[in-house]
Structure formats: structure tokens, C-alpha cells
Amino acid sequence: MSSIDITSNPYKKDFPLLASMPDLAFLDSAATAQRPACVIEALDHFYKTMNANPLRGLYELSIEVTEAIDSTRKSIARFIGAGEENARDIIFNRNASEALNIVAQAFAPTVLEEGDEVCITIMEHHSNLIPWQQACKKAGAKLVYLYCDKNGFISDEEMQAKIGPKTKIVSAAHVSNVLGVTNPIARMAQLAHENGAYMVVDGAQSVPHMPVDVTELGCDFFAFSGHKVFGPFGVGVLWGKHELLESMPPFLTGGEMIDYVSEQDAVWSPPPEKFEAGTQDAAGIYATGVAIDYAEKVGLAAMEQRERELMRYLAERMDALKFIEVVGPADPDARSGAYSFNVTGVHPHDVSGILSGENIAIRAGHHCAQPLLLFLGMHTCCRASVAFYNDASDIDKLVEGLELVGRMFNV
Amino acid sequence: MSNGSTSSIYSAALMDHNAHPDYRYELEDATHSHDGINASCGDELTLYLRIDDENDIIEEASFTGHGCAISQASADMMAGLIEGESVDEAKRLLGLFIGMIQGNELSEDDIEDLDEAAELQSISRMPARVKCAELAWRTLNGILTERETEK
Ligand SMILES: Cc1ncc(COP(=O)(O)O)c(C=O)c1O
């Protein structure tokens, strides 16, 4: 039995922006989440009481910052199921895009040869697509796509047909930012490994919505962005299997990532430092740790349950509007966070523009997934996305706004 | 914070140009055509012109493509404005329109010259939509610049 009351909202008060704009229906969390007060305060706290350059610290403050970063590594390793003891397999960078570029630019060249294949899905965000296009071009390898049906489902036959002996890397979104569907990562990883290939996961849209366990997924690399999990902008995470991080070359080079430098050569530090050239966003990393603690306190399972109820309610209200064309699965339970749609005969930018006038924030456009939209036979669409801090009134506002769009465009 | 200003851009005239465009068709005997794209939203437009080279007159203008109501209406208004005008006059209107969208004040005369297109003035305060309103005009600029370098 569902005991979740989506008309009440015990979470909004934790989010200063939402609390101060009671009329705003924020339905764009898939682009970036709102931040709770504790995260915003953590940044302030850091600069007021902890600020120093973290590495090679020889004095109290610097040591404290280094410890704070290591402690965030541990939290994240635990959070994604890699285990606290493997905290040093957590690499900090700027965002999921950069994390995926580390894999495509530093790891991929060590395994890709001419004639090999990289397999991705048709629903990839450009951040997990263009890096592979580039890697394939450089190596003379072929980029192969796993196609889904119109509900976003990738069949086992499709995976068996596309993942084979030529495949060296499989890379897929855990959750699609457009369709909201969860891809069968564990099965992809199994097929990849049977064929001697590696499994890379873009977790940008799964980590904010569900408990994630990289061990259960069986992947080799996992990337996500802190800003979509209630942390500050500017912090991305890459987790990788230790032996792969050990053996692959660095991505960026420079300060803080070497053990020893001579005039003509350098010896890399072990991971994670090997992949963290230059001064890190220590304050951002510290606040990301606070964001993870907050998410764990609310509970990912609780978030997932509440979002499921929100999604069911959203789907029910949208189904009642005769001019809505749903993009993606008909079953609301198949969606994590994202609900994409079109208003018949109305361009998505007009929809979002009119909704914006009513204080409703949704996304419209190609959602950085142009190949997917072309595959689905459209150029653009609208996307409303929810997080656990939304409630039924946000959805009611959206529906009212869409009714206004319908009246204005006579649909 | 509710402002309604976004909705007010969707005037009756704009909605009419969007729903019933006069110039939205492929021009078979075009002397010039050019594709314009709005990379951030994936909108695409092809502008066709038939220019009488001897007299430097735009005899006919039309467009095809897909985009939001603002980009479509703006294209239709533009085609109506420049059809039958000299190339120099089209350039002058182009300068006026882009200036307006970038936020320049217009004189009474300028507003009259831009006719309905002057209604798009308030878009200068909506950075996300500026590119939509400009798409057709920037494409026109592409054609006219190319034509000049060819000469
Ligand atoms: C599925 C997916 N992958 C990757 C990204 C890229 O994230 P970032 O822009 O933080 O690098 C996004 C962001 O929208 C996304 O939704």
C-alpha cells in the first residue's frame, strides 16, 4: 500500500530557493537539482573556517581540507556501492561530461584498435556520445548503436546482436534523461564481459533518483555529476575499477598528479591523484559530501517511492489532456524523474515560453540527445522532471499551464 | 514573480502569422536560397529569394522549415516586408530589425517601416527567444552577404 502523501511536502523547507518562491513550479531537476540549505551553508562554512589548498598540506588547515576531501571520497564510494575501503577509486573532476571524457580519451585508446567496435545506446546524452564518436574516429573503430522500442526498452536480442567479439567498450546511460527509462546495465555488462569488453555507465540521471550499486551493476566505470544530486555546480565523479585506473594513463597532466618530475619525464601519482591535475574545487567537494549525507538522510529508497507517486499522478493528469503526445514509456513506473511530451501542433519552445510566464519551469529542446529525437521522429520535445521535493501542486500548476497553451493555440 | 509577459508576446498578429503563413512554401524558381539553423533548439529554416539582378529587386520571398511560433511568424513577417523591395531596402530593414532585437530604441518612422515585425521588440528582453526571432533575418543576411561577395 502506498502511504505517501504527495499533497503534503515536508521537504520544501529544506530548500531555500523553493521556500522563497512558493509560486514556482520547478520541474527541471533533471537539468540541475535545487540545493538544500545545508549544502549552501557548507560552502560558506568552508571558506570561512577551512579554506586552504588541500594537497601537500604541511599545516593544520591544509591537512583538514585534505581529510575533508578524503571523507567525501568515502561517502561517495559507499553511496554508489563501491565500498568505503575503495574510496581511492573515486576521482573528482568537473562534471559527468568530463568524467566520461576521461574514459573515452585516456582509457579507450589503450583498448581500441582499427576495426573494433564501441557500443552505446540511441538514447545517450551528447556527453556519452560525442566522446565515443571522437574515440572511434581516432582509433578507426566503429560506433554501434543499441536501439530501443518506442517505450524506451532495449531487448535482449538487440543486445546480443550488437555486443560481440568486436566490441571493446559498451557505454550506456543508466537512466535516460529524455525517456526516464532504466537501461538493463547488468545484462549489458555481462554481455560485454563475456566478449572481453568493458562496461562504462553514465549515471548522471540515476544517482539522483535511486539507490545505485556499481558492484551489482557489474560495470567498470561509473560517472555522475554532483549538481544533479543536490551538490554544488562544478564537481563531477568518476569511479573506476582499481586495476584499470592503475594501468591507464592520465587525462590531464600538471601539478598535484605526479610523484616525481625530471627535465624530460615524470612519474604519475597513483589514482586518484593521477587523474586530478591542478587544484581541485575543495569547497565544492566538501559541500558535495554534505549533499550526499543529506540524500542518505532522506533516503534514496524514500525518494524513489515519492517520485513514483508523483510520476503516477503526473501521468494520470497528462493522460486526461487530449492534446498531449507522450514521448517514452506509457507506464509511469518505468520512468525515473523524466517525463517528456509534446503538445500537438505546438513547438516545445512556445510551450516552455508560455509556461515560464506562469512560473512553471520545464525544459524544451533536443535535451542534448539529438540522435534519439531523430530516431523517435521528432526534432524537439518538452520535458517535465521531478525530484522528491516536488509535490502534487507543482503538477497541478503544470496541467493548468498546459491548458492555457491549449487555449492559446486552439488545440 | 508571475509576469505573464512571455504570454503577451503571443499577440493575435503573431499567432495568425504562425497558424496561417502567407509565405511558407518552397519557391521553385528561386535565384537564391540559404539554410539557417538555430543550433541551441534544433530549429531549421530555408529562405528562398528570387532576385531581379538587373534592378536589384527582391521579386519574391518564401521560407520552409520548422521552429517555434516566434521563429515562424517572424519569418512570415519578414518575407512580407522584403518582397517587392530593393535589396538595399531589405538590408536597411535587416539592420533595423536586428538592432531592435538587440535592444536599440526605434524611432516612430522605424517602427512604421518594420510594421508588424516591430511587435517583436519585447523579445529583446527574452534572451532565450532572441535567436528564434532572428533566425529568418540572419538567414537573409547570409544570402545578401554571399550575393555581394559573388559580385
Ligand atoms: C544522462 C546524462 N548524461 C550526462 C549529462 C551531463 O552532465 P553534465 O552537464 O553535468 O556534465 C547529463 C546532463 O544533463 C545527463 O542527463
Structural description of this entry:
The complex is a heterodimer of chains A (about 400) and B (about 150). Helix content of chain A is about 40%, strand content about 15%. Chain A has about 400 residues and is of the alpha/beta class. Chain A folds into two domains: about 10-30 and about 300-410, Aspartate Aminotransferase, domain 1; about 40-295, Type I PLP-dependent aspartate aminotransferase-like (Major domain) (Aspartate Aminotransferase, domain 2), CATH 3.40.640.10. In chain A, the strands form four sheets. In chain A, strands 2-8-7-6-5-3-4 form a seven-stranded mixed beta sheet, sandwiched between helices. In chain A, strands 11-12-15-14 form a four-stranded antiparallel beta sheet, covered by helices on one side. In chain A, helix 12 packs across helix 14. In chain B, about 50% of the residues lie in helices and about 20% in strands. Chain B has six helices and three strands; from the N terminus they run ααβββαααα. Chain B has helices at about 5-10, 10-20, 70-80, 85-100, 110-115, 125-150, and strands at about 30-40, 45-50, 55-65. In chain B, strands 1-2-3 form a three-stranded antiparallel beta sheet. In chain B, strand 1 (about 30-40) and strand 2 form a beta hairpin. In chain B, helix 2 (about 10-20) packs across helix 3 and helix 3 (about 70-80) packs parallel to helix 6. Chain B is globular. The model of chain B has no long low-confidence stretch (mean pLDDT about 90). At the A-B interface, helix 12 of A face helix 1, helix 3 and helix 6 of B. Pyridoxal-5'-phosphate (PLP) binds next to helix 4 of chain A.
List the helices and strands and how they pair.
The complex is a heterodimer of chains A (411) and B (151).
Chain A: H1 16-20, E1 25-26, H2 37-50, H3 60-79, E2 90-93, H4 96-111, E3 117-121, H5 130-139, E4 142-146, H6 156-162, E5 167-173, H7 185-194, E6 198-202, H8 214-217, E7 221-225, E8 236-240, H9 242-247, E9 258-261, E10 266-268, H10 282-298, H11 300-319, E11 324-327, E12 338-343, H12 348-357, E13 360-361, E14 363-365, H13 370-375, E15 381-385, H14 392-408
Parallel strand pairs in A: 1-13, 3-4, 3-5, 5-6, 6-7
Antiparallel strand pairs in A: 2-8, 7-8, 9-10, 11-12, 12-15, 14-15
Helix pairs in contact in A: 2-10, 3-10, 4-5, 11-14, 12-14
Chain B: H1 5-8, H2 12-19, E1 32-38, E2 43-52, E3 57-66, H3 69-82, H4 87-101, H5 108-114, H6 127-150
Antiparallel strand pairs in B: 1-2, 2-3
The structure holds pyridoxal-5'-phosphate.
Pyridoxal-5'-phosphate (PLP) binds next to helix 4 of chain A.
